[in-house]
Design a protein that fits this description.
Elements (H helix, E strand, L loop, with lengths): L1 E5 L3 H5 L1 H14 L3 E4 L6 H11 L4 E7 L5 H14 L4 E6 L2 H11 L20 E3 L4 E4 L4 H13 L4 E5 L4 H13 L5 H9 L2
Parallel strand pairs: 1-2, 1-7, 2-3, 3-4, 4-5, 6-7
Helix pairs in contact: 2-3, 3-4, 4-5, 6-7, 7-8
Amino acid sequence: MRLALDLRDTGATSGDDALLARAVEADGLGLWGVVIGGPPGVECLRAARVAQETSDVGLIVWVDGTAEHPHTIAEELSVLDHLSARRVTAVIEGPLAVRDVVSELLAGHVVDDGVLTPPPAQTAMTVWASSAVAVADLTGDLEADRTVIDGHRDAGTSHLVVSWTGPLLPLARHLATRAVGPSFPQLVADMADRLP
């Protein structure tokens, strides 16, 4: 299972600099992805700033599918995919028909006599409906959070978006590794906590 850090509310309460700092830290710690949202029309702009300052972390862009025309959404995601060197995954909140149109455009198909230019850098960009995304609020209590992670992993969840307000190092050491498999030695994570 892959773990993505939910940063949708980070920029809203403390500014885009806080969102960028958390994303850069997540990138440095090897987290799989960060979820970026915002007011309609701002999501891709925030993600573009994160793309410029990171190199490996996946950019999961949570878009309001009712705020813009599907062709505009697809265009913005495509440009962002080029800027980020193929690290974009889209989550479309709203009608499934919008998600379907955006997905078709990003796949290179003609929709309503329109073709997406430029096409995304990825051969196949993943586009999820928000209703299909697993989301969990973690508390910072590692024992309780391990139970949440284990439950999702054992249920076959492929990707999990988690909220986490504390320092990212415990999330990366104790929970992101656990998301991969139950056999990750907890002893190694606990010993790493004792290192300076």
